[in-house]
Design goal:
Blueprint: E1 9-13, H1 18-25, E2 32-36, H2 54-64, E3 69-72, H3 86-107, E4 111-116, H4 139-154, E5 159-164, E6 167-168, H5 175-185, E7 188-192, E8 196-197, E9 200-201, H6 202-215, E10 219-222, E11 229-230, H7 231-241, E12 248-252, H8 272-278, H9 285-296
Parallel strand pairs: 1-2, 1-3, 3-4, 4-5, 5-10, 6-9, 7-12
Antiparallel strand pairs: 8-11
Helix pairs in contact: 1-6, 3-4, 5-7, 7-9
């Protein structure tokens, strides 16, 4: 698989987050990176910027630019809380995409926008293609779709949307880490078995985002690890691969574990377009999980 062709100066948003931090750590040789987040963070140059404020973004360009590309990972990702804070979720997931896309269009540079499987309703029986109809079930899904739409309208020739799902990685809160934490105190876990997707490691996704920035065309890409499973399957695999014994995992239905936001029951993504661009798919989900757990155990 060819290395990313991006050799310029990139702005990475959400740089203190689970995905953004990995994007920065995985920057290709020859690339220069400036990271930004809502608040300043130590360890990497991360100025605090409100990306939904055009003046703040213009000031960021003035002080740290010019940039040759943007990878926009910042997002409002509290799926259930978004049901209570739709305006804030829309500002972060929608307005900020519009502001960044307009700045990118003005600068004549590509924008890679990370989106989600939550733009689909989950009624499909086979993996979703980029061209399949969208119909989000939640505030989170609707605001992420708004971000896609606004960015494409503002910068149609330069916006590259990358939809992904079920993210986990070395930093941040996520499902595998939660399962391992719960397993320390419990010998019995109950996990939903009727939602199916593709667990995706940031270790796999981050290089793909650089490839899309460096060599992709405008439009939508799906990016997830190969294969699919339920949350129950993922919980069992996490404990097994981590060598955790003495914990029973019991399947349950979504109705038995109600949440404020509706989730798509089936949201596996067809990633053929990304595979064609990169020359290889992302790793199978179980292999990627094993790699991540091996790093965590060190």
């Amino acid at each position: 698989m060819a290395e990313s062709t991006f050799l310029g100066k990139a702005l990475v948003t959400g740089a203190a987050g689970m995905l953004g931090s990995q994007v920065i750590l995985g920057a290709p040789d020859g690339a220069t990176v400036v990271g930004t987040d809502l608040t300043d963070a130590s360890g990497v140059e991360i100025p605090g910027v409100d990306l939904a404020d055009p003046a703040a973004v213009a000031a960021l360009w003035e002080e740290h630019g010019p940039f040759d590309g943007i990878i926009h990972t910042a997002a409002y990702t509290a799926v259930d809380k978004a049901e209570e804070e739709p305006e804030l979720a829309l500002r972060v997931n929608g307005t900020a995409c519009d502001v960044l896309a307009k700045q990118a269009a003005q600068s004549g540079i590509p924008l890679v926008l990370v989106s989600t499987d939550f733009v689909f309703d989950g009624h499909a029986k086979q993996p979703y293609k980029e061209s399949d109809p969208v119909s989000p079930l939640s505030v989170y899904g609707r605001t992420k779709l708004a971000g896609e739409t606004l960015a494409q309208a503002a910068h149609p020739t330069g916006t590259r949307i990358v939809r992904t799902q079920w993210l986990y990685g070395p930093r941040g809160k996520h499902f595998p880490r939660t399962m391992l934490e719960l397993a320390k105190d419990r010998d019995h876990l109950k996990v939903v078995n009727d939602q199916v997707g593709s667990p995706t490691s940031t270790l796999e996704l981050a290089p793909a985002l650089w490839d899309v920035l460096g060599g992709g065309e405008a439009g939508v890409y799906h990016a997830a690890c190969e294969g699919s499973c339920s949350w129950y399957d993922l919980a069992k695999a996490t404990l097994e691969l981590a060598g955790v014994e003495g914990v029973t995992v019991e399947p349950c239905t979504t109705d038995e574990f109600p949440r404020p936001a509706h989730r798509p029951a089936y949201s596996v993504l067809d990633c053929a377009r990304l595979t064609a661009l990169r020359g290889a798919p992302l790793a199978p989900w179980r292999d990627a999980l094993g790699t991540y757990l091996g790093i965590e155990a060190q």
